[in-house]
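hey m, so remember when u said the tokens were messed up on ur end? i reran from scratch. heres the input so u can diff it against urs
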Amino acid sequence: MKRVTGFKQHGVGMVELMVSITIGLLVMAGVVQLYVTSIETQRSQEGLSRIQENIRFVSNRLNDEGSSSGFLGCVPRFDDESRVINLLAQDTGELPDGTPQAANFTSSISGSDGDGVNGTDQVFFRFALPRSIPLVGTFTSNTDTQIQLDNSINYQLAYNSLNRWDVAVLTNCNYAVVFLITNNPGNNGVVRLARGATVPAGFPNAGQSNQGTNISKIFYGEESATSGDIQARLYLAGAGGYSYSVGLSEAAQQVIANGGSAQCDADHPQYCSLFRNGQEVMDGIVDFQVEYGWVNGNLVSFGTAAEVASADGWKRVDRVKMDVKLSAIEVTGTNDGNASKRIQREMSQVVMLKNPVVEL
């Protein structure tokens, strides 16, 4: 009988092992690359979504406040400075080049070139809020230090919105008095405007105060108006002038406070922020350029703040063009050759002023 011998079993050879490892590494690399691509796509979508949300916010805010510029109740916005009696003491005049200062309510709008970081511009909008309260008694602009308002249930919501150190506007449709509220209006309807009382640091309108005036205009209220008298109403202006500019963000301030350095530019958008009246409202704003438009004969001229001042055109400005560049904070990678590897978008918006100052 023949003996049947078994076959020798052989293990995996070196070649087979190397091929298996290589195939496994290729599969693993593909999985890793797919995961990384997925993460980058998610970050890009989040960054783009955040930029689009910021664009909507900036566009709405600038449009609302820009178009409201110049509203002082029912007083006509004629090119007659005597119609606006400005009791505010600070920043109510003009700079040497003719640019209205921050609290100069004879102008609807003004601005400056290159005052912000990275050569960005600054713009000022001035207006009162549309909610009003009737005057009860009589107010004489150059002597009286208090105003009696109707704080009945009909006007309680508007009256309760008044706070100490707010700017307010009293108008009888012919003239407007701009002043600083120096008391906390209580339940008696009295609003005080003491002369010389200065807003302390840390409060809105810090450093502002009321001054005396040589312009004596009488404003009649519900109880003092006679036939033919226009009853005056008070409008809240809050901070009075609303400024927009780009500055170093809170993150940048913390870096600097800890001895580091922070530069606001397209490569470091986390250090750039849009400020409204000195308060940070949005980061990632790396550029903010403003031009102003006014009617010049049959044409509309656009120019920088310096060009408007040179043309003595501030009282003729009826529109403003704002170019804003927004950047994502996170590095996500882009396919447009952007060296910062951050998604960036630009927004350009022209806002028409509903209440521009017009020439008589």
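this time it looks ok to me. Residues 70 and 355 are 5 Å apart (CA to CA). if urs says something different then somethings off w ur setup not the seq
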